[in-house]
């Protein structure tokens, strides 16, 4: 039997017809994703905030991204979970706009942070001698400001001014909108704009940076192999340490790029194509794909933190409560070089 989100049947959305077992499984999976995202990003935030040795420009950029991902899990995912499982929105139209705007803002901000981190790593690997002069506190502050402000202006401006469905208002209100509905709806123009700002431009930057770092690291690896025939052992060791960092940076960015594309590409491709396909893509598919996008925020702390020994040491100190000991913030997590 068909059930509805609200009592006024002729204007209400249709509720999901899943069994209680399916709903319980979906709720359990989504709660696990939310908790993992919250805990992982909270540990990154605490680690970088507490340990003075981690107070570097690069780490403040990672700290800002972890804050974005933490807020996404805290403010957006729980309401998205109810909407995804029940196919109903119970929290009112005004809060729907706030939720949708915050969702777009934080998801876009997380992606922009990834692109700026890749730029930071590019200069650290490819121009290490001038890295500190080029990427200072002011530059990092500007990156963080851009990563927050542009998505905020774009998301809240578009949703509250209803620019996302400008030109297709009649189609939206006659055939899409119903009581209990809360999903972002794009026209052709706004869909392409959202695709460019939130996905294509930051993704293209990351791809170009990774391509450049990969080939520089590959070229340096070849030069090390050639240098092995040279008896200048001391120089080899010094170069070997430097080149191993380049290789690690290339590998890490490669994983970042792969996870980013796997998580967000399906959602944004469907979003930009849907208006051109006369909105033929099922709403349930879009809803599932947004959760694949959310997973990027779950994996971010694992990629940028769990790969580094300093994070594992910080995690151990946090779990055992050692951060509450006197002068624990001055504890050395790594030798005096870039972590």
From TrEMBL:
A GO molecular function annotation here is: trace-amine receptor activity
Q: Which GO terms describe its biological process?
A: adenylate cyclase-activating G protein-coupled receptor signaling pathway; adenylate cyclase-inhibiting G protein-coupled receptor signaling pathway; G protein-coupled receptor signaling pathway; phospholipase C-activating G protein-coupled receptor signaling pathway
Main subcellular location: membrane
The cellular component terms of Gene Ontology attached to this UniProt record, alphabetical and capped at eight, are:
endoplasmic reticulum membrane; plasma membrane
* Alphabetical list of InterPro entries matching this protein: GPCR_Rhodpsn, GPCR_Rhodpsn_7TM, TAAR, TAAR1, TAAR_fam
Q: Which residues form the G-protein coupled receptors family 1 profile domain?
A: 40-304
Q: Could you tell me the superkingdom of the organism this chain comes from?
A: Eukaryota
Pfam families given for it? 7tm_1
Mark the transmembrane ranges: 26-48, 60-81, 104-123, 135-161, 193-213, 253-277, 289-311
Q: Where in the cell is it found?
A: Cell membrane; Endoplasmic reticulum membrane
Membrane-topology descriptor: Multi-pass membrane protein
Q: Sorted alphabetically, which keywords does the UniProt record give?
A: Cell membrane, Disulfide bond, Endoplasmic reticulum, G-protein coupled receptor, Glycoprotein, Membrane, Receptor, Transducer, Transmembrane, Transmembrane helix
**Gene3D superfamilies for the chain:** Rhodopsin 7-helix transmembrane proteins (1.20.1070.10)
| Family, as annotated | Belongs to the G-protein coupled receptor 1 family.
Query: Can you name this protein?
Result: Trace amine-associated receptor 1
Organism field = Equus caballus
Q: What is the lineage of its organism?
A: Eukaryota, Metazoa, Chordata, Craniata, Vertebrata
